[in-house]
Amino acid sequence: MNRKLLYVALGAALSWGLPAISLHAQPASGQDASGSQDTSGDQAKKAKKLETITVTGSLLPQAEIETSAPTVQITAKDIESRGYANVYDVLRSQPLATGQVQDSQYAGGFTQGATTVSLLGLDPGFTLILLNGHPLADYPLLYNGSSNFTDLSSIPVSMIDHIDILPGNQSAIYGSSAIAGVINIILKDRVEGVDVTARMGGYTDGGGENQRLALSFGHSWGKFDLTGALQLEHQSPIWGYDRSYTNSAADNPALNGATPIAPRDVLILNGSTGKYVDPGQAACNNLSNTYGGTLKYAYRPNSGYYCGSLNEPGYTTFMNGSKSASLYLHSKYHLTDNTTLYGDLLYNHNKINLNAGTRFWYSSIGTGGYFLNANTGQFELWQRVFAPEEIGATTNNDSQTSDSVTLTLGARGTFGHSDWDWDTYYFRSQQQVKDKMLWPLASKVEQFFLGQQQGSYYGYPIYAPDTSRLYTPLTPADYRGFSDYDQTTSKTYTQNLNLQITNTSLFSLPAGDVGVAGLLQAGEQYWSNPTDPRVIAGDFWGLTGTQGKGTRRNYAAAAEFHVPIFSMLSANLSGRYDKFNYQGLSDSKATYKLGLEFRPFESLLIRGNYATAFRSPDMGYLFAGPSGYYTSATDYYYCRTQEPGVPIANCSKNSVQISGRTGGNPKLKSITAKSWGYGVVWSPSSDFNIKADYYHIAIKDEVNSLSIDRILQDEANCRIGQSTGGVPYDINSGLCQSEIALVHRNAANAPLNPDGLQAVDTLPINISDETVNGIIASTNWRHDMGRWGELGLGAQYNVLLKHDYRQIAGDPVQNILSLRSYYNGYRQVASANVDWSVGKWSFSVLGTRRGKTYNYAGTGSVGAWTTYNASIGYKFSDMVDLSLISNNVTNKRPPRDNTYSAYPYYNVFNYNSYGRAVWFQAAIHFK
Prior knowledge:
Structural class: mainly beta
CATH architecture of the largest domain: Beta Barrel
Shape: globular
CATH topology of the largest domain: Maltoporin, Chain A
Largest sheet: 22 strands, antiparallel, barrel
Helix content: 10-25%
CATH superfamily of the largest domain: TonB-dependent receptor, beta-barrel domain
Number of strands: 46
CATH class of the largest domain: Mainly Beta
């Protein structure tokens, strides 16, 4: 199947009958590793390098823009004309970005203030994000509470010159993390005069108003060149109540015409009967002014009466409110004809306000919510969701302040009049995040609603509460009286000192010159993610968090050779050795890459590559301290012993709320990977090209924690003595003893829920394997239509043919693509663009089609999601350009899923509910 699809793509590429021309790059001056131009060196040296450029994925300047590995490039013009909102939007819209990710829509997530992408459906941490060719520091907070990744929110879009995306293993050049691929974000290195750009607009469905002011400038004073830029941006939040399909629980598509049931905002549950204690109409009337006056006396079948509002879910932000400022400086000083000093500085400050959903409390969290009510003699659970009117200024209760700095200081030049170039530099990237969240304190909120504890009964606290207190509206002062701010400051940095030497003409072979490049690197990586000690002590009600701190040093050496084997065939061979030292331990890895380029004639390139890669253990996985979270799990032991014969799916303990606990493991080893691919590029004219490439990536020793589900299955097998299939298990074996120790239950003689499941511990280990392969293809065509202007057409396509995953050796391999789970990303993504310029006018349309995904219930699929971005530009004068830009022109909503019964009723990991955005932009250029 793989070969058949690729042959079809290759056949299409070769079926055109246009005249042949060269695939070589247009003449350009020599560039450094980031893509920036270098004017150092004497005239002879400049002439020799006139037709070479440095491309992402190589240390060597090359004469061809197409090499042995496929590269996708997005220019600053593309970003502006195709309606992208920010760097995250640019990259998430690319067909290579098929995987699900968490962003500001994931209410209550660990990294709601950050954005990232998933190339080829792999973990975001497997994609290396570079800025001007250098790896950025990790985001200080952990993705999904466990792993490190790079935040895209700190990169100002107005300062970008272009972005290169290179899929597949690239560790032989860049080291750790370049498994799924590399994204190299190149900032502008030269601006003539002064450019001022102002953009403002918002979303037609409401919310999300945005204003951006960007200033860039450049000038040369003799031997000194300076380029700078400043960007200021303000973003208003988008709330759930801003959209008609996310403003209420009545929007639930799974209702299918049934009467909507309000969320359980205020209730009392009788532990013996499992029914709600009827508060009466009058009690709910006391709270009727909350949620905009929508809270009512509500009823839930088979449970009873309580107080609830259909509008409660809508008080959640899907897009963060933010204010940001960015400063960029790029300078060069031509010290001599052979030596240039250079430096880059990028600083970004971002203040984010958000509301991660409703705040709530229920009684006695340590005993599953139940306490003994001395007034009624019953075990009861009290629950209270705090309305926005009670909390107060909702978007000021959760905030994050992020400051990031990247700095490069270096010098480069030529050894005399030789062919040897050198480049030595210091690079540092750092980020700090201050997190502030107003949250109830356990003892104070308990006392506020229940009064003083009057003892305990078999571990269950005894209270004699005043019921009317639960149904009395709070003031913001009341809420702050039993709450406090959980505040943390987390930091990361990565820094390294580098020496690189390059010779594009080491010696000559009959087919051409042999090029060589070498790199030596020494660096350090730091991660600190503290948690408020009160969180660890359990002082905040129901609040858990990640924590940890660590430093490691790394050393690397790399070399790359370009060898022309004969006139039509050349090879690139690169290798790198990395070593990491931390806590008296070390981890090292050698990687290599071989690329072949076959050019039977100048317009045709047939290419192939094979490479190895690695990802050093995440700082979070290595150094994380004890942390916890809440989740649901199946109590297999109860189901098999108390409800034998009942299918697990129908067991009453199929979904039990428990706490999960985890920590770091300094004995982890590196994840390893191998990739290979081949393809074709045909460019019969400078205005037309077509490409098709096959890729294959196999990952070994992937870090994972044994799933809670797996642990609970093993625990049941061990305690019962055999599996459901009859395989014997010895409870005294090492496996059984270790698995049982990870599971925490109530005492067997507990008066309520004896032997009930409470918590499960996990630990990251190298256990998993993963494989992906697929095909990417693209084509671009430009045509001069004379008086009708210039027309450009383009298309890109990516299809995953295979995505297999195995959690632990011996387990069956799972075909992720056929696994009926809404956690799957896209299998196919395609985009097409039309660009037309005529006279002073320019028009651009980009359409992106994201293929079908599985529905929430796993019983079928939801339709493809196709959106269009467009822009119209008018050159008012040589100084002024005006534009009208729109993202999602047709206001396409996420695909409807009639089985999606959980708010916000669509898959936030694949789609967004932002809708149509419209911006007006004015750009002024001063010479």
